[in-house]
Design goal:
It is built from two helices and eight strands. The strands form two sheets. A four-stranded antiparallel sheet has the order 1-2-3-4, with no helix packed on it. It has a four-stranded antiparallel sheet with strand order 5-6-7-8, with no helix packed on it. A hairpin with a 2-residue loop joins β1 and β2. The radius of gyration is 26 Å and the shape is elongated. The chain starts with a helix and ends with a helix.
Length: 136
């Protein structure tokens, strides 16, 4: 590579780095502050569900209790332990029309009130085992 090409490439690289640095500085892309709405909550091992809706984050913890947090601050809104569903939620959570639904063991589905975490209803079904599906 001749000297003239090396000078042109070096000039281009220095210009690109300078422009990139200026853009990063002007847009505060390297701000040391925490982003607004950034938070963490320990939910333990084997948590089975996480969903968000209406400014809330809903999750289960290691004991399968349903917990509701403010999506912006991480503040606990309610905990669904000890209710009709309590420690038996073992599926993804679904939020619709003000209720939070999840499935229990052995084919039961239940719902909690989205605003309060209070038990709403439960419907028991029959569990279907895998080997029974192969006979259908």
């Amino acid at each position: 590579m001749n000297r003239q090409i090396k000078v042109i490439l070096a000039t281009f690289l220095v210009t690109a780095i300078a422009v990139s640095s200026l853009v990063i500085y002007q847009n505060s892309l390297l701000s040391p502050e925490e982003p607004i709405g950034s938070w963490q909550r320990p939910i333990g091992h084997f948590a089975t569900a996480l969903t968000s809706a209406n400014g809330k984050v809903l999750t289960t913890d290691a004991q399968y209790n349903v917990n509701c947090y403010d999506a912006k601050t991480g503040r606990s809104i309610w905990n669904g332990s000890g209710l009709g569903l309590g420690a038996l939620i073992q599926s993804e959570l679904v939020v619709s029309e003000g209720i939070v639904c999840g499935a229990k063991r052995h084919g039961a589905v239940g719902c909690l009130d989205e605003a309060t975490g209070q038990f709403k209803w439960i419907q028991y079904g029959t569990a279907v085992r895998f080997h029974e599906l192969t006979r259908l």
